[in-house]
Design a protein that fits this description.
There is one protein chain. This protein has helices at 2-136, 144-198. Helix content is 95%, strand content 0%. It has two helices and no strands. The two termini are 107 Å apart. It has a single domain, classed as Helix Hairpins, CATH 1.10.287. The protein is mainly α and 200 residues long.
């Protein structure tokens, strides 16, 4: 009877052990199945992680390119700002020179008008002298040479004054036209620089 109980106990322990082993096998099978099911999402996740890392590298590379481009653009902007300041300075200098030429032209114009008035006075004086000579040629024949010399001097002075006035006017007109051309050219250069600056 004691032996029977011992055998029964061994059988029960064996059955429990077998049950535990069977349960462990089922558990392992379930874990393996779960692991198999998890492999695909894990592979997908790893692929997405690799893609994300690649995208991050590309993004960082793109950021460096953008930063380099921004630095170049900033340097270009600084250069263009300097060029713009120089162009404005040139324009101001051209305007100043143009004003100086215009004032000089006005002054020379006034002088030319004064010279023309003097020429008119000389012509009138010459006419008066000529008339006086004609009226008194018989009475003052001994002074004829002197009057002729005076007439010659007055005529030479008149021609010289007219020539000087013509040269002065021509020279000033040429300078004024040149200043206008330079001013137009400088304005065109400034407009081109401003257009390039605005296109950035």
């Amino acid at each position: 009877q004691g032996l029977q109980r011992e055998l029964d106990g061994d059988r029960q322990r064996r059955e429990k052990t077998e049950d535990v082993v069977a349960a462990l096998k089922r558990c392992i099978q379930l874990v393996e199945e779960e692991l198999d099911r998890a492999q695909e999402p894990l592979a997908t996740a790893l692929q997405k992680l690799q893609e994300a890392e690649k995208a991050a590298v590309e993004s960082e590379r793109g950021m460096k390119v953008i930063e380099n481009r921004a630095i170049k653009d900033e340097e270009k902007m600084e250069i263009q700002e300097i060029q713009l300041k120089e162009a404005k300075h040139i324009e101001e200098e051209a305007d100043r020179k143009y004003e100086e030429v215009a004032l000089s032209w006005s002054s020379w114009r006034e002088r030319a008008e004064v010279s023309e008035l003097k020429c008119g006075d000389l012509e009138e004086e010459l006419k008066n002298v000529t008339n006086n000579l004609e009226a008194t040629s018989e009475k003052y024949s001994e002074k004829e040479d002197k009057y002729e010399e005076e007439i010659k001097l007055l005529s030479d002075k008149l021609k010289e004054a007219e020539t000087r006035a013509e040269f002065t006017i021509d020279d000033l007109e040429e300078k004024l036209a040149q200043a206008k051309e330079e001013n137009v050219g400088l304005h065109q250069t400034l407009d081109q620089t401003l257009n390039e600056f605005n296109c950035i």
